[in-house]
Write a structure and sequence with these properties.
single chain; about 260 residues; mainly alpha; two-stranded antiparallel sheet; two-stranded antiparallel ribbon; 4 strands
Length: about 260
Amino acid sequence: MPEAPLLIDLRSFVEAHGGDPRYKLLGKLVRNAHSMVSIRFDLHRALTTMHLLSDQQTVLAAQRERGEPATESQGLLCSSLFVTALFLYARAVHSQGRDRSTLDLRGGLPVELRAEHERILALRDQHFAHYVSGGAWEDYRVVLVLGDDTMGISYPNERRLLRAEDAYALHRLLEHAQALTERAYIKASDRLNVELNRLFDDDEFADSVGGCRFEPKAFFSSGEVPGFMDSLDVQNWSFDAEMKTDFGYRSPGDPSKD
């Protein structure tokens, strides 16, 4: 029976040796490779979410043919799926922080999609992350109602739960972004591999990096370890663990009844 492979935690190594100029390039390459994997996963989740939205729209179309209008719950579900995909797209191609670099997506898009890219990002900023009225998604009025001898105030709001043209644009952007990210991910992994091969010519590096072990049982929940270990046999270097979801969530009680 073959022995289990030696697993090295490169992130821990570069964090522990961040001040050593010999490993400065390695640190950049580890961060960049991880960034591409993380961005790739965000885009995969976003595209999967858009497919779920498309499925839901098919269900609603069949309802309309039967003369059954969509319910508010169905509209909110469609809106939630769209907003989730929108935020994942923006996080993947627009946001960056200390632990993740960004991908220059705009330059790799077809010319006709670059304006759509900017519009979709602006949509996230102007209509979902912040409140802005008067646009295509939401508008309001405050109306004074005067009767013969009565007066009242009405607050009409126009809110769209989903705009087909925006959903279509986001779906197209995600398909292009996923293809671009796949190429960037492979390039980043190849560059990291080249640098590691160079460093392993140095016995000191080999001894030092061997002290930063990756322990699957400490990182994953117990049910995920076998899947991770099996993935190493087929060299699936971007193994993603099961999504951590607490299905024990329950709606809190009505505070007015306390």
